[in-house]
Amino acid sequence: MRHLKIFATDVIKGSLFEDLVKEGHQLTVWDRTQNGEISESDIINNAKECDVIISMLSNKLGARTLAQLPNIKLISQYAVGFNNIDINFCQENGISVTNTPNVLTNATAELAMALMLCSARNIEAARKNVIDKKWQTWEPSGFIGKSLFNLKHGIIGAGRIGTQFAKMCKGAFNQEIIYTGPNKKSEIEETCDAKYVNLQTLLQESDIISIHCPYSEATHQLINQSAFKRMKKDILLINTARGEIIDEEAMYHFFKINNHAMAGLDVVCNEPLDDNSPLRELDNIFILPHIGSANDVARSDMAQLIFDNIQCFANGKDLKTSV
Ligand code: GLV
Ligand code: GLV
User: Fold this and answer.
1) Which residues of the chain have pLDDT under 70?
2) Domain CATH code at residue 55
3) Which sequence positions are flagged as catalytic?
4) How far is the CA of 283 from the centre of ligand 2 (A)?
5) Other Cβ atoms within 10 Å of 31 Cβ, number
């Protein structure tokens, strides 16, 4: 077994780092609470001599950065999405990349459910009412939300997460599932009686639209101005995938005009959300700070998968979840 030099761009709780050191690897960890956000040059300076980077989705590992890290042989990303990494550069330069699929599917579907419920039932405004001591009486017409039962739900990207969320929505709320994506998928059809439609049909027919596709050139601003034009004026839009799949300016205008429409977003184009982002102005856009995989089980299984991949690499075995 090779002993590797590893650089982790942030602290991961649990025993991962200890376990790697026990295996004889040499580990450097960026301590964000002490040193602040990591920059491109911090990554280069710290990872220059290393074989492995444990990366976060917030680290931009483009060709320019990677070209200055000639020793790196493995990037082990603590996320399922890896659009922050230049995969072509990695392929051309013999760098292996692993991610953490499967283990965060339930957690992310769970969060999509939370966004759907919070948006549909005005949870944020209702809670604020209590916190601000504005709760006066039982209001016959206060905080009236939308029933989630029997609605038509359009899933964009019926991968693991989209399919899991569809199953939950079918089971909990008897929603009628339609879906779109590059290919028909048998699991969502078999388990949810889902119908495959094109994007235009999905946009027009859905009461709820949830986005679960990976971000790529093909899905860049897939939900643009003309997509918003096709949607119902009281759409419930959920995004737990990547912010860049939605044209944010078009989204802002749509939700500003249509105040019966609601959005629940776990992701935005620029994270963290800019202090001056106009999205903050709108009560019908509910935003969370990218916490899809943030539950105890998922984060610990993600760390285990990082450990397993690094051990496979050190032992010259096939990687468990190579992208
Ligand atoms: C989170 O967005 C992930 O890609 O894991
Ligand atoms: C990602 O994990 C997906 O397949 O949905």
Assistant:
1) none
2) 3.40.50.720
3) 242, 271, 290
4) 29
5) 11
Examine residue 319 and state whether it is found in any structural domain, yes or no.
no
Ligand 1 neighbour 181 (Cβ under 6 A): no
Q: How far apart are CA 208 and CA 118, in angstroms?
A: 13
Say yes or no: 135 and 246 in one domain: yes
Asked whether 81 lines ligand 1 (CB < 6 A), one says yes
The Cα 204–Cα 304 span in angstroms is 42
pLDDT score for 183: 97
Q: What is the pLDDT of residue 139?
A: 93
User: In this predicted model, what pLDDT tens digit does every residue of 219-228 receive, in sequence order?
Assistant: 999 999 999 9
* Token output for 88: 């072509």
- Amino acid 81: pLDDT: 98
Instruction: Determine, yes or no, domain membership for 320.
Output: no
* pTM for this entry: 0.96
Ligand 2 in reach of 292 Cβ (< 6 A): no
Domains of the chain: total: 2
Q: By residue range, what is the domain housing residue 39?
A: 5-103+296-314
The residue whose CA has the least distance to atom 5 of ligand 1 is 79
The neighbouring-strand residues paired with 77 are: 55
Verify whether ligand 1 is closer than 6 Å to residue 65 (CB atom): no
* 228 phi and psi angles, rounded to 5 deg: -60, -35
Task: Report the pLDDT value the prediction gives residue 289, as an integer from 0 to 100.
Answer: 98
- Specify if 271 maps to a domain: yes
Question: Is there a single domain that holds both residue 11 and residue 122?
Answer: no
- Residue 323 in any domain: the answer is no
Q: Go through the chain and tell me how many residues it has.
A: 323
pLDDT given for residue 294 in this prediction? 98
